[in-house]
Amino acid sequence: MDEDTSGSSKEKPVVAATSPIALELEAGTYWWCSCGRSQAQPFCDGSHVTTGLTPLEFSLEETRTVYLCRCKQTKTPPFCDGSHNRLT
Ligand code: FES
């Protein structure tokens, strides 16, 4: 049963992959998929539209390598925190 009493119903994120993806990204703004349904992982492609979930905007000040979460269980989105190792 859904415990959300706010009036909105959110679906749970789905696991897009059980490992993070390492990417070298240039400075700029990105939209990380939080719902797991995007076909353009780890970025949003609009597939969240019926889920009640929304992508997470993040920005980089300079080019750097990042490890972006694809299991969607991370506590430090959009970055991997190792939560994929605890999936059963
Ligand atoms: S497609 Fe997953 S948050 Fe947009």
Task: Give a verbal description of the structure.
The structure is a single chain. With 88 residues, the protein is mainly β. It contains no helices and four strands. It has a two-stranded antiparallel sheet with strand order 1-4. The chain binds FE2/S2 (inorganic) cluster.
Radius of gyration, in angstroms, nearest whole number = 13 Å
In terms of DSSP E residues, the strand content is: 15-25%
The strand line-up of the biggest sheet is 1-4
Order of helices and strands: EEEE
- What helical percentage do the residues reach? under 10%
User: Strand count, sense and closure of the main sheet?
Assistant: 2 strands, antiparallel
Topology:
Elements: E1 21-25, E2 28-32, E3 56-60, E4 64-68
Antiparallel strand pairs: 1-4, 2-3
The structure holds FE2/S2 (inorganic) cluster (FES).
The site of FE2/S2 (inorganic) cluster has 12 residues, from loops.
Notable features of this structure?
mainly beta, 4 strands, 0% helix, globular, two-stranded antiparallel ribbon, 88 residues, single chain, binds FE2/S2 (inorganic) cluster
Briefly say what this structure is.
This protein has 88 residues and is mainly β. The chain is 0% helix and 23% strand. The chain has strands at 21-25, 28-32, 56-60, 64-68.
